[in-house]
Amino acid sequence: MKKTLILSIVVAVISSCSSMKSGADADAVTMTGEIKPLGMTTFQYGTHSIKSEDTLYALRSSTVNLEDFEDKSVTLKGTKVSGYPLEGGPELIEVSAISEVQQETKSAQMKTRLGSANNAFTKDSILLSFTVFNESDTVRRFCKWETPFDPGIGKYMDILDAQGTEPSFIGAMARRVMPPPPESYIEVPPHDSLKTVFNLADNYAIKAGQYTVRYSGGGMGDFIAGNEIKITVVD
Hints:
- By secondary structure, the chain is mainly beta.
- The chain has two domains: 19-105, CATH 2.40.50.500; 108-234, Sandwich (Immunoglobulin-like).
- It is 13% helix and 40% strand.
- The protein contains two helices and 16 strands.
- It has helices spanning 2-27, 103-106; strands spanning 28-37, 48-52, 55-60, 73-80, 91-100, 111-116, 121-122, 127-134, 140-143, 157-161, 168-169, 185-188, 192-199, 204-205, 209-215, 228-234.
- The strands form five sheets. A five-stranded mixed barrel has the order 1-2-3-5-4.
- A hairpin with a 2-residue loop joins strand 2 (48-52) and strand 3 (55-60).
- The radius of gyration is 23 Å and the shape is globular.
- The model is unreliable at 1-23 (pLDDT under 50).
């Protein structure tokens, strides 16, 4: 009877350990993508984000300084944090290890270019062009959320006046359903580009003056950091 009881306890302990290990393994993740600082979002958790295989994840870490890897293509390891996602946001990953991907992998990402659609800018009309380039040999796609291809929604531009002050954002912020549905993606053929024109004044209360403008991506775009342009706005 005593031997039977001891054997039952041992089996129970082994089963419990095995179950705990399986649960931990299920929550372990490895992913590759570009780390972005988490800007204004509808969910309030995490410090950074990464988009891997067209899925957005929120990131945090108590062991790795994620700021050192901002706007870099990385491979990271971590675990899913229990209790997330919340507020319609993405899953939250606690990052335990991270390494930068070599430049040749990053080159597969698409490039962007910001330009002027005309040479006269007023407080109500600041027409800019935004072009996405696919220099790879295969069709690439990107989520149009937080890009000028989805105008008027989201805060995805870095804009500063001559004093380094950002004008007030007056655009709309949308509560997104994650992951993005298929219709939110746009395809770019190999060795081709797509261009759109948008009015920066629709999203910002801009006064007369000189400004520096750059596309920041808002954490969604799978793009290499683009150029910045300087514009002069008149009354």
